[in-house]
Structures are given as structure tokens and as C-alpha cells.
Write a sequence for this structure.
């Protein structure tokens, strides 16, 4: 009886048509990943099912059987293809479907679909910035808030899974644009100049092992053709001032160029602050500081790439980038110290008028050779020179003193990095196996020249302080070899490799005659796997080890006494930290995208900020290898089209953090939860209007000796498209309900605790326009491999 019922149900069930195949480049016979595949109604030409081909070129579509369909295939730079699908209830296996390259845009078939905003690859998540309707309006830093696994706090620090230890690359390479504070550069870089943002959580062996949490790769727009295409953007911010940028892509014969330039200002403004400290040892006392911090600067940046196609197998490309920021900084503050009876024991007024400047430039040259039998087999030779630095001047004047005798003084610090890199890369993509190998040499020179001049009150002259003067040099040479393999099967993709790195260090403190010579070896494994569950979902696993080498900001022994009550200084004795990262994630891209991931990492000697109490209740903050750090986290990213005109995006993370470490005879431990949530929604109308809403929250993050600030932000924007989408005008309002917000920090030890609070301009109105013009016909070729120095620690962010 049960058998008869089962047969009856099977007979009544609708038949299903399954269409599958593999999309292949007709010239190279290599698979085409992420090509658009649509099953269309033969009468209406409307799409019944749409998907993207997998990383190995395979695809699979299902639809009700009994009807005749058309299968449409499209891929950028290739001729579209349409194949008839007869009415049948059996599986149709098309085998290899060949697409041929074309320099012209054909109109064989029209496939209308929303561009996928997020893509999951075997070792990274890719955010398609150009598919985000807000890209013409906001800066690259604001776009970071939307990217899965990333967050931006109230101080504009970028965090990858809650960590400030990562590397930012531009087009897969270290760039002078990121010299100094990357957040300042990304605030000046329009998101409209960015093609996509890649979050590489399991970096393969070809990348340097630096960056505990992973790598953020910003890929800028560089498609061009015979002719030219240009973009001009102008923005005015009600608080900070103007920002202007332009970009150009052009091609003439075998020569191609792409580049952008930007200029902006941050008006000289002041915002209030307070520092409150309570001391328990050796006697109970307290200190209170109130005042105003001032800052302002001008910023100029440019990135350029030039290519020359010698012939179909040989390609030369050169790149140049430059970033410069100059401004003033200072503060006006009053300090009051009280004893256990709340009686004023000391007081003074301090005025600091200073300047600060950052610059970075690099130039690189790449030669790429491809081979006749397989043009995807590549050999690349690269060279890069970069020079980045910063200068700081503080002029400290004290008056209104009570029991305070520290003289006026001036501080100077000139620090930076000069770097030369040579690299060889080879990649051989076979049918199902891709082999990569290479060698690299980085010769890096950190330097810092600093001194302090103190005022002699009787003579009115400034004299040099010998114990606060130094010429510090730190040579760091890294030699590496790597080999990796990727295997693409029908439902699986595996990627694994090893990287060997040898680091030699030579440091010199000229003023005290101290030198440091050290060397160490690292063998860094990486492994990732992707299981394609069906045509629209996959499961990913990754493991890698990462290294955090100290950078010049952490190494620099310059004693910054711009606030004499709270001193900061670097630590040239820092050693690299090693962490182990594990990751498991699930992605579904059937309609919109959903990505769920969990991860765990641990390290025994991470570089942490540590603060100690000294004489006269002066605290000193430095860096030390004291952090035993464990992180367990979960991430959720959702991008969903509610309709053809309305979509939402959600990016959220929750972390459990355990930290402990010992410094100067004291043991510290801290743990807790931290995380962020960001939601955006956009709606477009038929007459060219776009409405956007962004809301986000970033929690307090766990530090070894305390907690940092939380941050809530909200913004609203309207965009109007004109003249066939060539012109966009917009207005955006950020945080309209409050003029200022307060960012506060807590630091605590057994003998003191400190509360720091800084006001930040919150309400901002941005108005501007973006104009595109020009016409192009084919894309510029560029080398597919090049130098990417991602082995030294970033200067910003929080661990």
C-alpha cells in the first residue's frame, strides 16, 4: 500500500529540467569564473532562472520541464551566446560551452539583472563597490563600513574582525597612499574610484605573512579602451571644507593610462577634551585636565598606472603614487592635581602650538611574459622603491603655574621608511591545477631623528637636552620563497601553500652607542577549501599563520611629551608576533547574498599598548610583546533585494575576546564581548532619484588594560541622475541630531585608573556632484602579478 502511495505521489510531482555545463574560453581553453548564465522563456525572453558560473567554470540551473527555453551566457569582454533548450524532462549536459573574446559590445542577447554586491571566493570575500548605489556619493572610508568583516569606529580606525593588525593594499600592492594614517587617505579617496574591496582572511602563500587578521585589498577602477573616459567630482562638507578629485583612463594603440588625483582640506578646528586620573600608589591623589584640541590639514594624493603592450606575449607597466598631508595641531589645556584631601597640590596652563606633516611616494616597474601555448601561464619580474615619512613639531609653553617648575620646551621628530623590493612570480594554470611560485627581497630602512630643546628662563635661549636626542636607524631585510597550489574540481576548490621568510634586523641608537643585531626564520602555512553545495551556495574552510612585525610608529623611541602628564614612546626592542587563524563560513547567493562565518584565533606574544605610572604621577604609554590573545567570533552579512528598486544590506559581528599579559612586574587580564552592526538601505525611482539610509553601531573593544569607546552613526543621502546618468548631484547628512559626540577610553591598573574623553564633530552636511564623460572601446592590459609588501604592521587601528 505504501509503495502504491509513493508511486502515485511520484507520478503527480512536476518534472524538473536540469541544465548544466562548463563555460570555457575558446582561445585558452581555461574556465571562465562568475559568468552570467540565464534560462529564459522562449516567448517572453524573460529570465526564469539566473546564476553565475563557479570558479571552475561549471554551472547548474533547474526549471519546470515541458517547456522550450533559451540558455543565455554572457561575460564581460566576450561574445554573448544563446543556445536552445528543447522541451524535455531529462538532464541536459551541454559539456564545454565555448565563449570567444570580443573587443565590441554585442547585442545578441540582453540579460537584465542586479550586479551581485558580494562574492565568496575560496580565500576571500569580495565587495563590488560599483554595484553599490552609494558609491558616487561617499568616500572609500565610509564604504568600508558596508564591507563584510570590516568596521570603522568613531576615531575612524578600520578594524578587520575587531583587530587593527592587518595590511591594506592598493591593487594587490603596498602603496605610498597608505603611508601615515590610512583612514585620512581613504576619507579623501572617492568610493567612485574603487572597483571592489577584497577581504582576504586566509591569505595564500604569495602574500607576505604580515597582518594578524588578514589583508584588505582595494582595487581601483582601471578599465579603459581606445579613446578616453574621465570623471570629475567636487564635494563640500559643512564642517571640514572642500574635497575635489578627478580620474582619467585612456588608451591609444599599445599605450594605456589610468590614474586619479585628489585634493581636500580639513579646516583648523577645535574640540573639547578631558583627562581624569586617580592614583593609589604611593599615595592617593588625582589629576584633572580640561581643554581644547586643535587640528587641521590639507591633503593631496594621486595614483597612476601606465602600460605598454610590446606584443601579445610581452607587457610592461609602471606605477607611481604620491600622498602628502600638511597641517597644524595643538591644544590649550589646564591641569589641576589634588591630594587625598582634594586640596590643589599643583596646577598649570599649557599651550601647544605645533605642526605635523606626512608624505609617501613610490614608483614601481613590472615586466610580464605570457606563453604561446597558454597565455594564462605568466612570469613576472617586478621592482619597487618607496619613501614615506612624517615630521612633528611641538612648542610647549606653560603659565599660571602653582608648584610647577617644568620649563618651556620644543620637540622635533622626523621619522620614516625607505624601502626597495625585488620580486619574481610564476603562475601556471593547468586544466584543474594552478601552480604558483616566487621569490622576494625587501630591504627596509626605518629611521627617526628627534631632539628636545629646553628654554633657559634667565637667558631666554633654548638649549638641547642630550638625554632626549637620538638618531635612530632600524634596518629590516626580509627574504622569502613561496609555493602554492590550487585544485579546482567539480564541487571542490582546494588552495594551499607554504611561505618561507628570513628576517635580518640591525638597529643603531647613535646617541647612546647601542646596537641590535637579530635574525629569525618563519615557515608560514596556508590552506583553504571551498565546497560548492549547488549553483548558488558554498561552504568554506581556511587556516593560516600570520606574523605581526612592528612598524616605525611602534619602534620609534621618540618620547612625545606634547602633554607632559601623559607621555607616549615607542619600543625598539619589539619582536614579531605569530597568530593562528581558523575560519569556517557558508555563503548563499541565490537571491542577493547571505554569508555566515565563525572564526577562532590565538597568539602568545601580540604587541599591546601598555601604560605605567611614574614619578610625579606621570603616565607613560608604550608598546610591548605581552599579549596572550584569543578570539572567538561570528559574522553575518546579508544583501537582499526586496524589489527591483529597493535593497538592504546588513553587516554584523560578535566577538568574545580573552587577553592577558605581564609588564613591569604587573599581571593584567581582561575579557569580554565586542562587535558591530551596520545596516544600509537604498531605493531608486524611475526618474533617476536614489535614496540611501545608513545606520551603524560599534561597541567598546576589549583592551589589555581597559576598554575603548563605542560609536553610533547614521546618515541619509539623496542622489539625482541627469543627462543619461553622466551627471550626479547629491546631498548627504551625517548624524543630524547632535553637533558633537564624545569618544571615551578607560585605562586601569593596580596603582591608577584614567578616563579620557574627546569631543568629535558629529553633524555634517555634504553636497556635491560627479560628472562622467568620454567613450572607450577595449580594456587596458595590466600585469596580473606585482609587488605587494604586506609584511609590516599598520600604524592605525586597534587590536
Amino acid at each position: 500500500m505504501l509503495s502504491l502511495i509513493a508511486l502515485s505521489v511520484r507520478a503527480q510531482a512536476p518534472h524538473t529540467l536540469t541544465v548544466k555545463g562548463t563555460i570555457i574560453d575558446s582561445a585558452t581553453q581555461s574556465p571562465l569564473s562568475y559568468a552570467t548564465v540565464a534560462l529564459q522563456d522562449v516567448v517572453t525572453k524573460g529570465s526564469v532562472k539566473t546564476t553565475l558560473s563557479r570558479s571552475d567554470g561549471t554551472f547548474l540551473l533547474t526549471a519546470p520541464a515541458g517547456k522550450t527555453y533559451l540558455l543565455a551566457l554572457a561575460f564581460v569582454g566576450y561574445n554573448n551566446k544563446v543556445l536552445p533548450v528543447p522541451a524535455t524532462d531529462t538532464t541536459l549536459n551541454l559539456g564545454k560551452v565555448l565563449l570567444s573574446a570580443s573587443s565590441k559590445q554585442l547585442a545578441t542577447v540582453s540579460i537584465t539583472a542586479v550586479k551581485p554586491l558580494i562574492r565568496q571566493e575560496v580565500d576571500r570575500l569580495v565587495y563590488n563597490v560599483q554595484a553599490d548605489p552609494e558609491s558616487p556619493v561617499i568616500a572609500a572610508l565610509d564604504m568600508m563600513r558596508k564591507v563584510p568583516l570590516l568596521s570603522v569606529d568613531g576615531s575612524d580606525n578600520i578594524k578587520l574582525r575587531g583587530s587593527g593588525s592587518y595590511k591594506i593594499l592598493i591593487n594587490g600592492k603596498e602603496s605610498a597612499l597608505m603611508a601615515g594614517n590610512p583612514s585620512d587617505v581613504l576619507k579623501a579617496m572617492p568610493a567612485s574610484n574603487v572597483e571592489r574591496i577584497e577581504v582576504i582572511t586566509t591569505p595564500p602563500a604569495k602574500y607576505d605573512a604580515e597582518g594578524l587578521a588578514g589583508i584588505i585589498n582595494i582595487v581601483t577602477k582601471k578599465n579603459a579602451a581606445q579613446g578616453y573616459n574621465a570623471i570629475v567630482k567636487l564635494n563640500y562638507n559643512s564642517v571640514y571644507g572642500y574635497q575635489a578629485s578627478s580620474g582619467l583612463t585612456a588608451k591609444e594603440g599599445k599605450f594605456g593610462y589610468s590614474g586619479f588625483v585628489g585634493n581636500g582640506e580639513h579646516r583648523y578646528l577645535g574640540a573639547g577634551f578631558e583627562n581624569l586620573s586617580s592614583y593609589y600608589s604611593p599615595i592617593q591623589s588625582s589629576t584633572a585636565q580640561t581643554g581644547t584640541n586643535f587640528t587641521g590639514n590639507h591633503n593631496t594624493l594621486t595614483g597612476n598606472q601606465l602600460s605598454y603592450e610590446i606584443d601579445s606575449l610581452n607587457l610592461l607597466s609602471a606605477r607611481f603614487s604620491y600622498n602628502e598631508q600638511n597641517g597644524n595641531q595643538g591644544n590649550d589645556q589646564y591641569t589641576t592635581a589634588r591630594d587625598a584631601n582634594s586640596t590643589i597640590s599643583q596646577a598649570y596652563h599649557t599651550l601647544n602650538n605645533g605642526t605635523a606633516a606626512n608624505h609617501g611616494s613610490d614608483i614601481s616597474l613590472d615586466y610580464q611574459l605570457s606563453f604561446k601555448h597558454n597565455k594564462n601561464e605568466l612570469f613576472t619580474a617586478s621592482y619597487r622603491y618607496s619613501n614615506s615619512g612624517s615630521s612633528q613639531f611641538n612648542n610647549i609653553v606653560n603659565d599660571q603655574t602653582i608648584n610647577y617648575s617644568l620649563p618651556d620646551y620644543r620637540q622635533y621628530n622626523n621619522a620614516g621608511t625607505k624601502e626597495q623590493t625585488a620580486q619574481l612570480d610564476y603562475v601556471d594554470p593547468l586544466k584543474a591545477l594552478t601552480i604558483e611560485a616566487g621569490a622576494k627581497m625587501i630591504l627596509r630602512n626605518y629611521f627617526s631623528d628627534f631632539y628636545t630643546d629646553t628654554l633657559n628662563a634667565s637667558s631666554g635661549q633654548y638649549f638641547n637636552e642630550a638625554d632626549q636626542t637620538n638618531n635612530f636607524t632600524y634596518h629590516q631585510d626580509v627574504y622569502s620563497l613561496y609555493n602554492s597550489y590550487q585544485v579546482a574540481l567539480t564541487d571542490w576548490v582546494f588552495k594551499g601553500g607554504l611561505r618561507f621568510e628570513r628576517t635580518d634586523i640591525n638597529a643603531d641608537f647613535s646617541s647612546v652607542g647601542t646596537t641590535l643585531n637579530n635574525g629569525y626564520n618563519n615557515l608560514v602555512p596556508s590552506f583553504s577549501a571551498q565546497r560548492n553545495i549547488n549553483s548558488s551556495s558554498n561552504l568554506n574552510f581556511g587556516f593560516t599563520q600570520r606574523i605581526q612585525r612592528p612598524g616605525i610608529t611602534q619602534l620609534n623611541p621618540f618620547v612625545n611629551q606634547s602633554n607632559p602628564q601623559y607621555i607616549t614612546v615607542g619600543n625598539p626592542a619589539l619582536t614579531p608576533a605569530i597568530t593562528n587563524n581558523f575560519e569556517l563560513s557558508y555563503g548563499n547567493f541565490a537571491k542577493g547574498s547571505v554569508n555566515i562565518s565563525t572564526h577562532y584565533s590565538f597568539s602568545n606574544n601580540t604587541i599591546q599598548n601598555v601604560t605605567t605610572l611614574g614619578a610625579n604621577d606621570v603616565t607613560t604609554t608604550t608598546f610591548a610583546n605581552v599579549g596572550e590573545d584569543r578570539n572567538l567570533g561570528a559574522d553575518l552579512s546579508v544583501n537582499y533585494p526586496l524589489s527591483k528598486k529597493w535593497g538592504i544590506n546588513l553587516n554584523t559581528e560578535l566577538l568574545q575576546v580573552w587577553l592577558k599579559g605581564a609588564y613591569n612586574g604587573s599581571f593584567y587580564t581582561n575579557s569580554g564581548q565586542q562587535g558591530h552592526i551596520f545596516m544600509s538601505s537604498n531605493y531608486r525611482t524611475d526618474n533617476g532619484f536614489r535614496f540611501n539610509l545608513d545606520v551603524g553601531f560599534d561597541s567598546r573593544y576589549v583592551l589589555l588594560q581597559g576598554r575603548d569607546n563605542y560609536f553610533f552613526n547614521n546618515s541619509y543621502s539623496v542622489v539625482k541622475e541627469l543627462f543619461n546618468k553622466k551627471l550626479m548631484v547629491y546631498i548627504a547628512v551625517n548624524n543630524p541630531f547632535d553637533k558633537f559626540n564624545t569618544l571615551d577610553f578607560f585605562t586601569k591598573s593596580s596603582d591608577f585608573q584614567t578616563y579620557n574623553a574627546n569631543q568629535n564633530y558629529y553633524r555634517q552636511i555634504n553636497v556635491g556632484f560627479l560628472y562622467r564623460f568620454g567613450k572607450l572601446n577595449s580594456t587596458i592590459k595590466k600585469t596580473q602579478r606585482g609587488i605587494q609588501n604586506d609584511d609590516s604592521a599598520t600604524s592605525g587601528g586597534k587590536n
